[in-house]
Amino acid sequence: MRRFDLNWPTLVFLVGLIVFFVLFLFYPLWYAFVQSLVVNGRFTFAFYELMVTSPVYQESILNSFRLGMITTIATTLLSLPLAFLLVRYDFAGKGFLNGLILVPMVLPPFVGAIGMKQMFARFGSINLLLLDLGLIDQPVDWFGGGGFVGVVILEVLHLYPIMYLNVAAALANVDPSLEEAARNMGSSGFRLFRTVTFPLMLPGYFAGAIIVFIWAFTDLGTPLIFNYRQVVAVEIFNSIEDINENPMAYALVVFVLLLTVFFFYLSKATLGNRRYEMIARGYISSGSRPASRGMTVLIYAAMLSLTGIALIPHMSVFLTSIAERWFMAVLPQETTGRFYTMVFEHPMSLSSIEMSLILSVLSTTLDIVLGIAIAYLLTRTRIPYKGVLDAMAMLPLALPGLVLAFGYLAGYSGTFLDARHYPVPLLVIAYAVRRLPYMVRAAYAGFQQTSVTLEEAAQNLGASRLRTLFQITFPLILANLVAGGILCFAFAMLEVSDSLILALKDEYYPITKAIYALMGRMADGAYLASAMGVFGMVLLIVSLFLAGRFLGRRMGELFRA
Q1: Are residues 414 and 561 in the same domain?
Q2: Per-residue pLDDT reduced to its tens digit, 308-343
Q3: I need a labelling partner for 394 at 20 to 30 A (CA). Which of 126, 208, 301, 451 fits?
Q4: Residue 286 CB: number of other CB atoms within 10 A?
Q5: What are φ and ψ of residue 130, in 5° steps?
Q6: Strand locations in 125-266, DSSP E?
Q7: pLDDT digits (tens, 9 = 90+) for 115-165
Q8: Do 18 and 50 share a domain, yes or no?
Q9: Residue 450: which of 429, 428, 468, 427 has the closest Cα?
Q10: Number of structural domains, the chain?
Q11: Are 371 and 310 part of one and the same domain?
């Protein structure tokens, strides 16, 4: 019979983590589920019936499905060729091009939407340029469908790196000898890819596709900026103010949660009974080959073109932030830097920066403590049901932020954690829970790469387990902890769903909620909001660079399912 390591420090850690997950992961979800079924003490399916019979909710659900499906298909069509080119060919500068893949992630799509509206409006820069060149006779409606196309474009440009990281990892693990055997049998080209390569990539592909679909389906900020309001996320957001009188939002939240669970279950059920074992990587040669000069030029052209397109939202935000006057012109007629000064002078923007700094520091500290505890239990102890603890720690990566934020707002209403009165505690917890998987994976990798014999030697010389942890282990995994902490901090600074839903008072607005509020309050609100967005971009660029320096090639593992 296997012996489990359950001394009192381990038990304290384990019980504390279970309590934390119950209170701030499972309870909010359970509360929303119960409220969707019980009204005035009576069990009812009335809200679910209304969801499927009301034309308004039917349209919202269908629009969200369209948004999720089209975004997933488009990111797939972008990511598969990229993965094939960057995984199967070796050429000078390959590492640089791999780094470019992450560039679109440095700007939340809802911030990019501010600049995109300026660039692609009916008389925006793109239409005016095409009219000047004589390529069109009248302005093009780039955001046709009431803003639907604009939302899709922003989502695709932001999410294709996540799909790429999953697809590239799956393709790199495909045994080239199997493809060679298929070629010897006469298969080649697209038929080889369709019948051999892609089926072996399915686990990784589905992992990325599910994340992209759920993210696009539940995105709140981008539809709000484009005023595309007939989607599930915006319906939930609009129900916050009258949630006690109209509990329909609970049913919508449960619907999104069940949809998420269904897709992950479907992937497990579809792929779980199929076998994907291949010859061990140590016994096969690499599937990559040197690229010819022509192929290298093609790869660079494809990557730089895609990156250039993906940077259009970033460039449009920057141009908007420096525009003193920009009307009926391709580029700003007058430029200024005063909006960057206003960021630190305007009461709302200044207080939002201070609030985001406080929230991000506190949530990152909580992530570090929890992440180290979880990683330590998983790698350095013998406890029962390790897989359950690992799954709970990674669950926030799959759950939509919209669902958790709404659960916090509703579940803790009327308590000392009520976000309507003082949202800071719940914002800290929400930020921490959402980014905890990054910290767990970073710390886990550090513990795995540090030999346990060093700790055993210190303990054999009389050092306690706690002293060994602080004096031996932590210095050795410091780079991983710093990298994970940097990412948790940066992404918390620009968290969207939690900020929009939980920050209900002006004095507690984080940066993203302030950007959204400024867009609708001031004549020059878009310019000031864009300046704040540029600061956010710079923060994420620096953070990703520093994290990449510490983690190296393991950086991509933090963004993969």
Answers
A1: yes
A2: 888 888 888 888 888 887 777 888 888 888 888 888
A3: 451
A4: 11
A5: -65, -35
A6: none
A7: 777 778 777 788 888 888 888 888 887 776 567 888 898 889 888 888 888
A8: no
A9: 468
A10: 2
A11: no
